[in-house]
Amino acid sequence: MNIMLFHSTYGLRPAVRAAADRLRAAGYEVWTPDLFEGRTFETVEEARDYREEIGKDELLKRAVLAAAPYSERGLVYAGFSLGAAIAQTLALGDDKARGLLLLHGTSDLAPNVSVDELPVQLHVAEPDPFEPDDWLSAWYLQMGRAGADVEVYRYAGAGHLYTDPDLPDWDAEAAEATWRVALGFLETL
Q: pLDDT by residue (tens digit) across 63-78?
């Protein structure tokens, strides 16, 4: 199986490469496009400024160009936070998508989006300042109406990007639980 794994707003950091290596060790082919062209950030403020400088349309264009050579194979789209939002946008627009694995983030849905029982799994902190409960409830309902088969896993007390050991949000127990469940999800696709 082929996985397109998008990085968070911090850029293509070691935690993303480690996640890709973990997925490769489980037998998957994984691509980790660098949407920030080598830039990484230590603070969310620096990252947000750079992301705004690039612009949402340019980021999506870079993501589409990265995925296009492999989309015919039937990709599983995955990502961390901002990368999850990008993965969601691409998966919902790709009729060959095999699945969607969201870590720490979601995105708006176009009003007319429709998929055919796309398997979706979301892992998110509880609470998460970037993914509040009312947003997640609305997102879940919209994904269901769009035709996705959605599973949501919440991790009480974890920080937003709890799978990155180099960030203050790191939560080893929640991260291991996430990877255990996510690998099980990928085995079903």
A: 999 999 999 999 999 9
- Classify residue 123 by its DSSP letter: E
Torsion, Cα 122 127 133 139, to 10 degrees, reads -20
CA dihedral sign, ordered 68, 73, 78, 84: positive
- Provide the 10 A C-beta neighbour count for residue 180: 10
User: Three-state secondary structure along 150-184?
Assistant: EEEEEEECCCCCCCCCCCCCCCHHHHHHHHHHHHH
> Tokens 């960030």 sit at which residue?
167
- Nearest residue to 107 via CA among 78, 137, 131: 131
Tell if the pTM clears 0.85, that is, is over it: yes
CB 102 within 8 A of CB 121: yes
Computed on alpha carbons and rounded to an integer, the radius of gyration of the chain in Å comes to 15
168 and 159 in contact (C-beta within 8 Å)?
A: yes
N residues, the chain: 189
| pLDDT, tens only, 125-152 | 999 999 999 999 999 999 999 999 999 9
- Rounded to whole angstroms, the Cα distance separating 94 from 184 reads 23
Residue 160: which region, alpha, beta or left (left: phi > 0; alpha: psi -120 to 50)?
alpha
pLDDT tens column, 29-64: 999 999 999 999 989 899 999 999 999 999 999 999
